[in-house]
């Protein structure tokens, strides 16, 4: 598999007091991400912890840490590692969960003392003989791997390519020089039965098994069923309700009246809307002249800016792998180092533009492109049922 060039020093992991606030926040965000592991717990699993109160969560954390200490000890003794005179592992070598956050979905987000702790936790969990962490978090508890999700655009949807057919995904891997299994799954962003009859191309969500595979595609000319397509990284997006068209919630929790996403009328659905109706945005009000789904809506743009601020990974053109070129942009005050993204064969995305800005390279002006299927933790959040609720592409995806 092709890998990116290593042109510069590794990403600094220590606090740099000279760095700008945005740069520091991005570094901190990446470091925190590396230290977290998301555990999915099956609903109705009677062997999962029943008490999800702060006290119950504290107990779960302590139980996990106790088991981790035993596993670390065994591991170090087996590996011939150094232990202190009392036979205990030194404090800084122990895998410890520093924080445990129960999520509404039933999952637990674990934060470790250091990135290596999260890696070691994954190694223990992969060993079926250890029954870990299922012996503590429930028999169906599994680690949910971070999503490396890409959006393929202008993919022919005329029937040649079927993302639900594994043979087609295998072919996609071969055509694009990927290792077997590099593509975990693919699905259309919009349901096939919601397309117009004239539609010949559509957007495809592609989940890669590794950051390396996703980065390889981001640097390549990508072909699907023999056709060159455009591709970009999935980023965090504002959530828009596909019932009332307002931002901040989804249809399942909506108590408002249903509105047409194009003209905001409550009299008809999208399919019944005519181009003779004046576009109107529910968020911007009666004087607006754009649709609620418009990507040029000022409210949408403001929400995007807020998300970029909260999730600085949005501004990174690649998935971080530890190699410097995949990491955060270089220090903005030192623009002359050779730190630049690998050669691209298609126009840079909005995210790439941000990096180019920070390295003071000449700027092209590609159109704004956003469309997210990620949740707040960088894990793939879109289930097939959520996908079934997607109604409009070529516009802001709503939920
Ligand atoms: Zn709503
Ligand atoms: Zn309408
Ligand atoms: Zn608007």
How is the secondary structure organized here?
Layout: H1 21-34, E1 36-40, H2 54-79, E2 97-102, E3 108-112, H3 115-126, H4 134-137, E4 142-144, E5 148-156, H5 166-175, E6 183-188, E7 201-208, H6 211-218, E8 222-224, E9 227-233, H7 298-310, H8 350-358, H9 384-389
Antiparallel strand pairs: 1-3, 1-4, 2-3, 5-7, 5-9, 6-7, 8-9
Bound molecules: zinc ion (3 copies).
One zinc ion is lined by residues 281, 283-284, 288, 290, 297, 299.
Region (Disordered): 320-350
InterPro entries: Znf_CCHC_sf (IPR036875)
GO molecular function: nucleic acid binding; zinc ion binding
Structural descriptors:
five-stranded antiparallel beta sheet, 9 helices, alpha+beta, 26% helix, globular, 9 strands, binds zinc ion, four-stranded antiparallel beta sheet, Alpha-Beta Plaits
Structure, briefly:
The chain has helices at 21-34, 54-79, 115-126, 134-137, 166-175, 211-218, 298-310, 350-358, 384-389; strands at residues 36-40, 97-102, 108-112, 142-144, 148-156, 183-188, 201-208, 222-224, 227-233. It is α+β, with helices and mostly antiparallel strands and 399 residues long.
Write a structural description.
By secondary structure, the chain is an alpha+beta fold. Among the domains are: 42-140, no CATH class; 148-233, Alpha-Beta Plaits (2-Layer Sandwich), CATH 3.30.70.1820. The chain contains 9 helices and 9 strands. It has helices spanning 21-34, 54-79, 115-126, 134-137, 166-175, 211-218, 298-310, 350-358, 384-389; strands spanning 36-40, 97-102, 108-112, 142-144, 148-156, 183-188, 201-208, 222-224, 227-233. The strands form 2 sheets. The protein has a 5-stranded antiparallel sheet. A hairpin with a 5-residue loop joins strand 2 (97-102) and strand 3. The longest helix is centred in the first third of the chain and has 26 residues, at 54-79. The two termini are 36 Å apart. The structure holds zinc ion (3 copies). One zinc ion (ZN) binds next to loops. Residues 281, 283-284, 288, 290, 297, 299 line the site of one zinc ion (ZN).
